[in-house]
Specification:
Length: 242
C-alpha cells in the first residue's frame, strides 16, 4: 500500500494532483491512500505531533506561510525520512531540494509519465521498517537498521544509533520492547538494555557491539542469552542463504 500526503495551498492544484494519483491507483490496481494538506504547517502538525506516517510526501514549493522547502527541512530535522518530491512552476529551488534529500523535483503541470515513474520506483524500493518515538515533544521515525541499543538510565530512556547520535525518548523501555517484539534482531538482554543483535561483534561478560561498545546482560542467564544470540545468527545465515 502507498500512503501519500499532498501539500499545496491552492485547492485546484490539490484537486489536480489527487486526480492524477487516483488515475494511477485505478490503472495500476494499487492500494493508494491520499491525504491532502492546505499548508506546510498542517502537514508538520500531523506528522510531528499526531504521528502520521507516509510512503511519499508531495510538497508544493511556493506556499503561503512555510514554503515546501522549509516544511521539508523541518521534517528532516525532526527525523522524518519519508521520500519526498517537490512540485513547482520554476526550477529555481532545485539546489535546495537536494539539501533535504528530495527524491524528485516535478515541474507543473505535473507530467503523468514523470509522476508514474516516481510512484513505480517507490513500489520497487525495499521497505525500511522504522520506529516512531517521542523525542523533544515531536515524533521522530528511527529506522530499525540505525538502532544499536536502548538504555534505561536515571529514569530516562536513551536510543543509541549506529552513527553515534544518542536520543532521549519519552517511551518506556517496556513499550519499546513490545513495539519491536516481532523483529528477532531486537533483544531485551537486561532490565535496562535492549540491543540490536545485528551489531553484536561477540559475547563475553558483556555484549560487545560495533565500535567496541560494551552492553551488560543478565549475567545469571549468560548461557541462555548466548544461546539466544547464536540461534539468531544461525537463523539469519540460513535465511540469507536460501
Amino acid at each position: 500500500m502507498l500512503s501519500i500526503a499532498i501539500c499545496d495551498d491552492q485547492p485546484h492544484e490539490l484537486a489536480i494532483l489527487q486526480s492524477l494519483l487516483e488515475q494511477y491507483r485505478d490503472e495500476k490496481a494499487v492500494d493508494v491512500s491520499i491525504t491532502a494538506y492546505p499548508s506546510g504547517e498542517s502537514l508538520l502538525v500531523d506528522i510531528q505531533q499526531n504521528g502520521a506516517s507516509y510512503s511519499l510526501l508531495l510538497l508544493d514549493v511556493l506556499m503561503a506561510g512555510l514554503t515546501g522547502i522549509e516544511t521539508a527541512a523541518c521534517l528532516r530535522e525532526g527525523g522524518c525520512q519519508a521520500p519526498l518530491a517537490f512540485l513547482t512552476t520554476t526550477r529555481d529551488y532545485a539546489v535546495e531540494s537536494y539539501e533535504v534529500k528530495a527524491a524528485d523535483y516535478l515541474l507543473k503541470p505535473v507530467s503523468r509519465a514523470r509522476l508514474w515513474a516516481l510512484l513505480d520506483g517507490l513500489q520497487d524500493a525495499p521497505s525500511r521498517p522504522c520506529l516512531p518515538l517521542h523525542i523533544r515533544g515531536n515524533i521522530r521515525y528511527c529506522f530499525y537498521s540505525d538502532i544499536l541499543f536502548f538504555e534505561s538510565l536515571d529514569h530516562c530512556i536513551y536510543l543509541h544509533q549506529k552513527d553515534g547520535e544518542t536520543l532521549r525518548c519519552a517511551e518506556t523501555l517496556a513499550a519499546i520492547a513490545a513495539a519491536l517484539a516481532e523483529d528477532p534482531r531486537f533483544y531485551r538482554c537486561h532490565k535496562s538494555y535492549l540491543i540490536n543483535f545485528d551489531y553484536v561483534d561477540c559475547v563475553e561478560d558483556t555484549f560487545i557491539l560495533a565500535g567496541g561498545i560494551h552492553v551488560p546482560y543478565r549475567i545469571r542467564e549468560k548461557k541462555k542469552i548466548a544461546n539466544d544470540y547464536y540461534r539468531y545468527l544461525l537463523k539469519k545465515s540460513l535465511t540469507q542463504g536460501s
